[in-house]
Amino acid sequence: MLSSAEVSNRLSSFPRFEDMLLSLPYAPRMPKGMVRETREVVAIARAFNEKVARPRALELDRKTHEDPDYMPRDLVELANRWGFYTMWIPRIFGGRGYNMPSMSYFAEEVGSVCLGIMNVIGVHYLGVAGVVASANTRLAKRILGEVARGEKTGNPCLIALATTEPGAGTDVEEVELVDKGRVACHARRVRGGYVVNGTKVFISMGHVSTWTVLYAYEDLKRPSETTVGLMVKTGTQGFSFGSHENKMGQRVCPASVLVFEDCFIPDDQVLFSTDMVRKFTKKPIREVAQRYIDYVVGATRPGVCAFGVGAARGAFETALKHASTTTMNGTLLINHEWVQSMLAEMYKNVALGRLAYTEANYANSHRGLYKILQLKPVYYYLRLMPQAYFDKVIGPMLEKDYSTRLMGKLSYDWARPEDQRCCSGWASLAKVAGTDLGVRNCQMAIELMGRTGLRQDAGVEKMLRDIKLLQIYEGTNQLNRLNVFKCLIAPEVPQARVFDEDR
To answer: Where does the signal peptide begin and end (predicted)?
Structure first.
């Protein structure tokens, strides 16, 4: 038997035990209430599928193909009535306060029917994560409070996230690459705020959202050192919409071009800037900006994995139904060994993808953006206290400067680099795994079903079109593979260079 010291030493060597199997050390720390919540969330998703998603998925795909300018406002209103836009917003900001990992299971369920419909719901939380990650509690209370009021009044308030630029693509999701990209969205500092000029492209739900989280740069020659996060309200002078992309898949979820022409954003709508960051940390803005991006993608890329797993599962379920009801040479397909082997492979892919997003969510729950909310005392405090308490007692505290400075300290100044790498690396790993497995299962389903799988009304070709986009969305899978190397492998190899600007 090994001594305790020997065990600790061996498990701390690369690869570290706790970095490989996050669920084992962290599962006992998770509140049991999270399991009950997740079961409830899955039940809600299945009810939504039966009543809304399944009856309308193919209809909406055809409708948006015939009318590329269609905007899913009726679908947004339905999702708002179901409470989906506040379900994963913390109660201190007026939301329903369901645990964030449960959203991945929700995404798998709805995504198994239609990724486009799921994106109409889920992309909103990219914006929510962008607001929460800023640590600007006053602005978060204001914006997320509007979302909560929009649910009560029946006027949906959605938040979009504007990152991608025409000349930079997904480069801006890695601070190491920003300076190589042709970023052009400029935020000029003026008295009382910023004046923004530039364009963002392929912004999901841009046309339908009330607010947009915008990343811009004060100095385009040094963008990584001058990153600014701004909140822009639809209808603001100088902010307009360009074309609505006619995409190959996820057609029901619009992808918009956003245009900023001398658009003034006041100081009270600044999420973060160099001046704000200096109030709670001496770390360089480049490092803080990367941390901010990692918080956002660490919280959301596991959800993208769940999208992919949903497509993988939908393809498997469709193929299983086809094999169970179709005969070949007088024998049901399901009784042919080659079909059984393919179905087993597809089932395996679903299971592996689910494990990937589960592990990534464990990383984020205990090392990432939402780690405070998943501590047992905090979790039960937030679940059990009446909402009036948060509105009347906690709410005024969030308005104070000290609240933002404290959250900034907790989130950025006192954050451990190894936690950041773990969350970001596992989020990228999950995103690549889920989307690649989703594409593979859709391809296998079409191969198994033959000519039937090519028919639009079978649904699988739509699933393939939908899932293919996710290999490119939220950082291409090539970029995410490099991030896996950067975060999970390179720290153990001193001579390794990732995103080397000198090459």
So the answer is: none
The answer to whether residues 111 and 303 touch, using CB atoms and an 8 Å cutoff, is no
**Domains of the chain and CATH, by start:** 17-156+283-493 (1.20.140.10), 160-282 (2.40.110.10)
* DSSP β-ladder status, 331-332 and 239-244: unpaired
Tell me, what amino acid is at 57?
A: A
**Tokens 């000349």 appear where?**
167
CA 29 to chain centre: 24
Q: According to the model, what pLDDT value does residue 69 have?
A: 86
Task: Find out whether 49 and 109 touch, Cβ atoms under 8 Å.
Answer: yes
- Cα torsion 29, 369, 131, 93 to 10°: value is 20
pTM over 0.85, yes/no: yes
At 197 the three-state DSSP class reads strand
d(CA 226, CA 185): 12
Residue 127 near residue 159 (C-beta atoms within 8 A): yes
CB-based contacts of 76, cutoff 8 Å, min separation 6: 120, 156, 158, 208
Neighbouring CB atoms inside 10 A of 338's CB total 9
What are the residues whose beta carbons fall under 8 Å from the beta carbon of 232, sequence distance 6 or more? 162, 196, 211, 212, 214, 239, 260, 263, 265, 269
B/e letters for 287-312, b = 16+ CB within 10 Å, e = fewer, are bbbbbbbbbbbbbbbbbbbbbbbbbb
- In whole angstroms, give the CA distance from residue 115 to residue 475: 18
Quote the radius of gyration of the chain (alpha carbons, Å). Answer: 23
Contacts of residue 55, Cβ cutoff 8 Å, sequence gap at least 6 = none
Q: Which tens digit of pLDDT belongs to each residue from 306-356?
A: 999 999 999 999 999 999 999 998 999 999 999 999 999 999 999 999 999
Maximum pairwise Cα distance, the chain = 79
Secondary structure (H, E, C), 404-418: HHHHHHHHHHCCCHH
Per DSSP, the residues of 116-137 read HHHHHHHTHHHHHHHHHHT--H
The separation between CA 32 and the C-alpha centre of its own chain, rounded to angstroms, equals: 24
